[in-house]
Amino acid sequence: MQYLARREHSRGELRQKLQPHVQEDEDLDAVLDELEKRNWLSDARAATQLVEAKRGRFGSQRIAHELRQRGIGEDMIAGALPGLKASELETARDVWQKKFGVQAEDAKEKAKQVRFMLSRGFPMDVIFKILTFSESED
Q: How confident is the model at residue 25 (pLDDT cuts 50, 70, 90)?
């Protein structure tokens, strides 16, 4: 209950955290089923919370990766991605502006900006749109 009191967890994530504490005769799946039945544990809420927390700083690829790491099903991830992709260009532009704000002077600086944006989970096509857009502003 302490884990769930802090933030939403997916079933897979909570299972992983509780597994080391399970005794031989205890049934972890029954406990998780009961938590889901009482609506205290929800993969959908955990996915929504993660997406909302990360959407202003990270791209869809990174958020999808984090959802997979937390044990969220591919169907829920596929449902969340269209909403992320719709605002991804704007988010990437904001992240780039906050971090760099100025056009790259040379290839080395441009590569640095591309690597940073890739590490934030933005796809290459979005990154090139941002770098091209920033160059065309000048």
A: confident
The model carries a pTM of 0.83
Alpha helix positions (H), 70-123: 74-86, 88-99, 107-119
Q: Indicate whether 100 and 118 sit together in one domain.
A: yes
Instruction: Identify whether the C-beta of residue 74 lies closer than 8 Å to the C-beta of residue 65.
Output: no
Same domain, 104 and 81: no
pLDDT tens, 66-75? 999 999 999 9
Residue 67 in contact with residue 128, Cβ under 8 Å? no
Same domain, 97 and 77: no
Q: How many residues does the chain have?
A: 138
- Could you give the CA distance from residue 67 to residue 69 in angstroms, rounded to a whole number? 5
Give the number of domains in the chain: 2
Give per-residue pLDDT as tens, 106-128: 999 999 999 999 999 999 999 99
Write down the number of H helices and E strands in the chain. Answer: 9, 0
Q: How close are the terminal C-alpha atoms of the chain, in Å?
A: 55
Instruction: Answer yes or no: do 104 and 82 share one domain.
Output: no
